[in-house]
Amino acid sequence: MYNLGSDLLNLLASTVALYIIVDPIGNIPLFTAVTARLDPGRRRRVLVLSVSVAALILILFAAFGVEFFGYFGVTLGDFMVASGIILVAFSLLYLTRPYEQGIAAEGVEVAVVPLAVPFLAGPASISYVLLLSREVGLLHVLLVIIVVSLLTLATLLASEVLTKILGILGIRVVEKIMLILSVAIGISLIRRGLSQWFAGPPQ
């Protein structure tokens, strides 16, 4: 039976989860360093292009990734466990990394590497999108990707304001909180995937 309230809650939960995984607030120092030599207008164009490229990559994986992996007999439980492991691993990696000064770039090529990939459309976000498309359907995932992309773009465009409000230390604290939440989401995916494995035959 169609339940609008439940669907909206699922959409909201998926959107929040993907936003946490993409972590645009935590990536503000990296984006600022990489685009340091660009004038404000060019910097905005680079940010728009990077978010657009990342969104396109996620949409392509959402649309065709499940069918591709389906040929190899990958089940929903497999997706959950693999996505959870990747999410936990990358979140722990970024939690324990030392802060580094990024290399300032001159051209818009940085919109693709490293801004779009791997900062925004990295292994963790791609894995989560694959899982969502397998679990709840393509339309749901497309809406989530579009909303998160717009929120990410707004966050990055407001990076100077957020940095003034929170400060570098505040940005880093928010980043750590986001990463801890990402670890929790990853563990939840692993637990649900293992439950799928032991619940019955592969789907």
Q: Can you tell me about this structure?
A:
- With 203 residues, the chain is mainly α.
- It has one domain (4-198).
- It contains 8 helices and no strands.
- It has helices at residues 4-22, 28-34, 40-70, 76-96, 112-120, 123-135, 138-157, 159-199.
- The two termini are 22 Å apart.
- The model has no long low-confidence stretch (mean pLDDT 86).
> How is the main sheet built?
none
As a percent range, the share of helical residues equals over 70%
Q: Distance between termini? A: 22 Å
Number of strand elements: 0
Give the averaged pLDDT, no decimals.
86
What is the number of helical segments per DSSP (H or I, 4+ residues)? Answer: 8
Order of helices and strands: HHHHHHHH
CA-atom Rg in angstroms: 17 Å
Give me the secondary-structure category: mainly alpha
Low-pLDDT segments: none
Total count of domains: 1
Backbone shape: globular
Strand content: under 5%
